[in-house]
Amino acid sequence: MMKTRPLRPTLLALTVLMAVPLMANTPAARADSTTRPDPRVLVDRHIQALGGMDNIQKSQTGTLIGSFSIPAAGINAPMTVSFSGHQKIISKVELPGVGAIESGIIDGTVWMMDPFQGPRLLEGSERAQQLESYHPDAIRRLPNFVDAMSIVGIAEYNGKRCDKVNIQWKSGRESWDCYGVDDGLLLASGGKTSSPMGEIEVTTVIKQYGDLAGYTMPVHSEMQMMGQTQVLKFTGFDTTPPSDEVFALPPAIQGLLGNSGNEDSAGKKLNP
After folding, report:
1. Are strands 228-238 and 99-106 parallel, antiparallel or unpaired?
2. Is residue 35 situated within a structural domain?
3. CATH number of the domain bearing residue 86
4. Which pTM was predicted?
5. Which range of residues forms the domain containing residue 16?
6. Residues 149, 146, 205, 208: what is their CA dihedral angle, to the nearest 10 degrees?
7. pLDDT interval class at 117 (50, 70, 90)
């Protein structure tokens, strides 16, 4: 089951709003439980409940510290995620007795490296989905990324009711969000994600928001995929900008880039 690539919802994961530091303010009130809100209003309400987009973007530099676990397998491992905006992201999980699972986005190059599959560059729909997930305009569900959003009804997660919104992306994929009726915060999201095994249905449930370094963000999230539950917990957030060395591509990934033919004369990776 480890070959289901448990780290994916993080690189992501951090997905879509999960890895973005979030801050709570006073949310707008729903008119009443029978009113079907406009999806745009729900998204904007969520963003405002987190302190606004400016605040979210300010908090997209630093290092999250936490853990990754698969309870059914007895796996619990330390995890760090370092990021500088949406163009530089590095995540690392140290599996006891197994080794490190690493993944990253560096200026358009999207890669993964683990003891099971070795190093590899993500291409095609996998690469596109990762880049899309972290872009500020995608987080805001703006028209340059999203074709349409529609309300599909009321759902419940963690004993809380939420408005479920279906999203049609310009890239062709579909996903959904569920925004809390009471506080407007995102409670869950899901959809199909690309993988070497094809498309996999993934549901992410935000179990708890908390305060880290003055920012309110998801501190406990659970992903369900292929009958498996994977848990992310964050306990610290260092707002110090990571050094350039943190985002240096591992030699194995540099080797793959060298063999891909997508370099300029100086050996720099070309990313369309």
Report:
1. unpaired
2. yes
3. 2.50.20
4. 0.80
5. 2-260
6. -100
7. confident
